[in-house]
């Protein structure tokens, strides 16, 4: 479909070449882009990765390492490398990428890598390591193009060319004054188009979005996506320029946050690595299952309380599973829509209120329709219209509760400052289980005995 | 936190200004960025939006309209506008944005808008309307900077400046030959840095990713994210340049696809609008609930089959809810992790096999641990070690099945070319309900009666 697309053939090709000489392997590797080698690495052993990295130029090797997924542990590859090669590669990496990788190591390992670097590089990375990983500071790159407000067109172009020797990619040119205070941005296009005697001060665009280093990464992503900008400046409280966060980091953040939300509402800890092994998965999920067991005992306590009723009308236990299952699924539907809506939009109080009202209505209608189906079933199969009525009422009531809790609980959590995705299906289905059984068995005790 | 941040104050401010004169309102509006007005529109009535749009310059008005969320229906705003103003605004819009908005209208309404446009604009938009919305063709913009391979540095810069009069934002300069065949990309920075007599042919970077107009939008997003590029060229089968898709479109695609996945695995139709009304929500969810009802009858049939057993040991119905609830939640966990993993990575057959094996192991361990807790509970509360054993076995077996189906079903669906997120919790919990009851009640019949 496009020029680069990896498949199993590529993996076998590399694996085949690994059996041959270094020269042959090198020739094959030249056919691939660094980001492709990073993907192929996922299918290779640690020793093979090491051999390949050592064959690549420092430029390509550092690009491969920066493109490797966090889950493929580029930091381990770095750690096992010869210290000289490692230092070359780390110095070639952008500061933000180097920081991301080094931050995954133990403190003594970090120290080992940093002390081989130049004082300048080491202190820049040390500085970035001090920011929380999930903030603008943790995402930002401290290498960017900055020019003084008072430069003329010609001097500005010279300065940009000079600075761009060090910086591979830039999307935005930041403008500062003599005190290093941020003044705005300017595009290379506008500089080139300007008249010969133009000054940057005439070209600068001052009204731009910016963030502080402690701004949450979700907010950074929201701003970049809202204003369609390739990079956003990070400023300190004196409005001095500390760094920039670029759109490609934001794409990664969005994928990460979306993964977190999806796992959380499904009752999986947000830090479970998708490709982690079973030990990590057990550690991440067992606590939630134990919590679920606790809530299940609660629901089961309700059933136990109505034991005598069930002994008399055993068929109730067949309907119990229907009421609980339907309630759980209706609640999961309301939960998914609401959590997703909260994460994409800022809801006003009025919108939040209307959301709950909407889910209440949806629950009532869906409950009544499916309740009616079960009523008819009970009428024909169990020839018991009163039992049908009890089931109809329990179904409608339980889907009402599903709607209110599925929408209401994440909205309340958001309001009090807790991540709404924590309102996982495990929490929400407790309500529908308990209320569903209470309604069905309570009504049955009153009306059928 | 940053220069632009909207809150309730802004909404009240605009609403207050709407009560005053046009001049006052205009003055207040000038304080806001177009994308902020687009957000504020969400809290305003259709009449107020119309009044504001008419007060704004054509440039700002078209930006507001292009920034409005699909769910706020910019096409309705456009339709209700005075035709002259509308034509001005549509001509100011980028072709891809105009196409997105117009595509939401009925055919006769589309015609009404298009026939007022210049022949050139109308045919460009008509052409874009012909592509599927969820492909590169549907996302691409046909306005971009293209220069001939044979230009010299000076002519290239002149050409770029000339073309950029029409194109507000550009990130990449595309290079073509005399036959309009795509040759690669070049950066403005490299052109400026080149020697005076350099030709574009010496500067062009030929190895770049590209797509066809019918490439799926998810693939486009994956490539832009993999290669960290601001835009990707769209080529026809003769390698001629048709357009470009930019990173900001890709951010929107990712958010959309993530919403779809989250809704689907929760049993909500992917086309339910998050802020839709209750009618849409009922239409989207009721069919899934009815499907769930069908599967619930299946599970309930199992319970009914074991009616005599339950009549003798009524406490079994209390444990049934625990086994079914735990199985459902464990399956949802495995499902979320697997669906997310499939959507982020391409899994090889071997990786898919190991994923199922991992979930089997996780299910066995989590089942045994939680089964043991329930065993102890049964021992102390019901003083019945044999009942405890039955429950322990049913729990372990059901969580094993939860792991295998939660991971296996989406992987099989992916393999046969069906969207794995369709394997919603509704489908998966059918397995855990049916097998959970079969195990618990079947074992109880054999061992306890």
Word description of this protein:
- Two copies of one chain form a homodimer.
- By secondary structure, the first copy, chain A, is mostly helical.
- The first copy, chain A, folds into three domains: 8-130, MgtE N-terminal fold (Alpha Horseshoe); 146-246, CBS-domain (Roll), CATH 3.10.580; 278-448, Tetracycline Repressor, domain 2 (Orthogonal Bundle).
- Chain A has helices at 8-18, 22-29, 34-40, 46-55, 58-67, 74-80, 83-92, 95-102, 107-114, 119-129, 136-139, 153-164, 188-193, 200-203, 217-227, 247-265, 278-305, 307-312, 316-344, 349-381, 385-415, 425-448, and strands at 146-148, 173-176, 182-186, 231-235, 241-246.
- The first copy, chain A, has a three-stranded mixed β-sheet. A two-stranded antiparallel ribbon of chain A has the order 4-5.
- In chain A, helix 12 (153-164) links the parallel strand 1 and strand 2.
- At the A-B interface, helix 12, helix 13, helix 15, helix 16 and helix 17 of A face helix 12, helix 13, helix 15, helix 16 and helix 17 of B.
